[in-house]
Design brief:
This protein is an alpha/beta fold. The chain has a single domain, classed as 3-Layer(aba) Sandwich (Rossmann fold). 41% of the residues lie in helices and 14% in strands. Strands 3-2-1-4-5-6-7 form a seven-stranded parallel sheet, with helices on both faces. Strand 1, helix 1 and strand 2 form a beta-alpha-beta unit. Helix 3 runs parallel beside helix 4. The protein binds coenzyme A and NADP nicotinamide-adenine-dinucleotide phosphate. Coenzyme A (COA) binds next to helix 4 and helix 6. The site of coenzyme A has 15 residues, from helix 4 and helix 6.
Amino acid sequence: MADGAELFRDDAFAGRNVLVAGGSSGINLAIGQRFAGMGATVSLVSRSRDRIEAAARSIVDAGGEAIGLVADVRDFAAVERAFQQAADRFGAIDVVISGAAGNFLAPAVALSANAFRTVIEIDLIGTFNVLRASFEHLRKPGASLISITAGQARRPLMFQAHASAAKAGINNLTETLAMEWGPAGVRVNAISPGPIGDTEGMARLAPSAAVTAALKSRIPLRDYGTKRDIADAALFLASDHARYITGAILEVDGGSILGDASADALTVPERPR
Ligand code: COA
Ligand code: NAP
């Protein structure tokens, strides 16, 4: 493909309605913006009225169609109300991104029971609430649900007991719903971003230049990903090109999940005699 060429036409998602939970910033907002740029209507949901309305405005100012809705994903009734508002405004919902999350670095001995529960409630229970509340509003068959998980789900990370456990639960929930909702023509997949530059997540997990350089040196592709990399994966999973893909956990991580690739394996060593 030529540099800068688009795989999808710029109206590829015209007539489709996307809801993004946790859409006020970062990766999730970038996903919403990308779908809007391809013609979809976008409903963004988060806790903060100011942040979510500013996020929706960023899409409208760029020529797209979007609304910002307030709900804490821990509150099922509030999530249900947000889906109803989105459906009232745009009709049935075709694509749902469940990406609301909270995270911080802390060893397990520094986690109170409430700290552990808070991350489980936002990430895992929040994802259940969002996917469960979506079901009645989905255009079936044809709907595509995408959870945003993380590599910690498969490769536990120290200081991440809370997030690792929550994201592992999200992977299993994604797979279970793929089995239960497949017969209705609803596909359920997850995207597992690796370290993504210019995000709140990496500002919290790699707060210094030294940690950033050390992390990059271990990634097979030797760099952080971009928000656009994750948005492109979401476009693909939501498109008809992925019509036979469900229950997948798609790693978009430069190979990070495979392990520490910091050794130099491209310099041919002297063979011992
Ligand atoms: N280390 C240890 N415990 C921490 C902590 C830290 N860095 N940050 C928060 N906690 C604890 C709090 O002390 C509290 O426990 P306590 O009641 O026993 O004292 C518990 O976590 C809940 O904190 P609170 O601030 O009340 O939760 P909240 O619901 O207002 O916010 C967070 C949730 C803590 C996850 C907050 O960081 C947040 O809103 N994050 C969203 C953005 C984000 O994390 N982005 C990155 C996504 S990957
Ligand atoms: P971010 O900008 O902080 O995004 C988190 C979003 O979740 C915000 O929009 C926040 O909005 C919302 N949110 C938090 N708690 C919520 C709640 N209780 N109810 C509703 N919304 C809530 O972080 P990010 O780094 O871009 O991460 C986005 C997603 O990618 C997360 O699922 C994260 O786990 C995943 N991920 C990120 C990386 C990375 O490198 N950054 C790597 C792997 C996975 P409000 O504050 O307005 O509520």
